[in-house]
């Protein structure tokens, strides 16, 4: 744990020193708030209840598909480009210590951005009597989705020296894992392959699990899906680092 903490502090300091963390936090908060207030009729007097499920929590999945890779694209690609990877891995730190430390540093930045949206919760509580279970489920869903997108970016970053290539590939992969659960695409799979295959494909989508959790259904299978996806991507990260070292 001590080695992980050392790597975590080092990476978190680099994130904030480069201004990337500040830019990410500001963009995420401003865009999510703007989309909520402008496009979801947040202050509609005809609304039946005060809820964030169909207003605020409609947007984080789409925003994090782009912004989480922007945070993670430098985690390993930049180490390769500057040559500091050799220095890092020659320290008395196991490869998995560095991987976990860097991952949690990136996740901490995203977590701060998600937490900075708390004013909208205060607003909803002031306007009505919201379901707190749904709000907590939405935040847990957002955090899990962000962790998955960041883990995918970590894996891609471990295999490439180019930050731009890492960003493009990561966004593409996150978009594909989101797109396969979008209703029009799911209907297409149903028409072509049948309902059973369509459901099996959508079960691999981060978006379908995100939608369930943001309704307050934080079930064990949903958590297992995200933990498994993150673990698999971090394993791929270790494979990429070992390949580079050899």
Features:
246 residues; mainly alpha; 13 helices
| Unreliable runs | none
Count of individual helical segments: 13
Q: Quickly give the structural class.
A: mainly alpha
Distance between the termini: 26 Å
How large, in whole angstroms, is the Cα Rg?
19 Å
One letter per element, helices H and strands E, the order comes to HHHHHHHHHHHHH
Largest sheet: none
In percent, how much strand structure appears in the residues?
Answer: under 5%
Structural domain count: 1
Number of strands: 0
What integer is the average pLDDT? 82
**Helix fraction by DSSP (H/I, runs of at least 4):** over 70%
- Outline, from the CA principal axes? globular
Structure overview:
- This protein has 246 residues and is mostly helical.
- The chain has one domain.
- It contains 13 helices and no strands.
- Helix 6 runs antiparallel to helix 8 (132-157).
- It is globular and about 55 Å long.
Task: Describe the structure concisely for a colleague.
The chain is mainly α and 246 residues long. It has one domain (2-245). It contains 13 helices and no strands.
Q: How does the SSE layout of this entry go?
A:
Blueprint: H1 2-17, H2 20-39, H3 60-72, H4 77-82, H5 84-90, H6 95-115, H7 118-127, H8 132-157, H9 163-179, H10 183-193, H11 195-202, H12 206-214, H13 220-245
Helix pairs in contact: 1-6, 2-3, 2-6, 3-8, 3-9, 6-8, 6-13, 8-9, 8-12, 8-13, 10-11
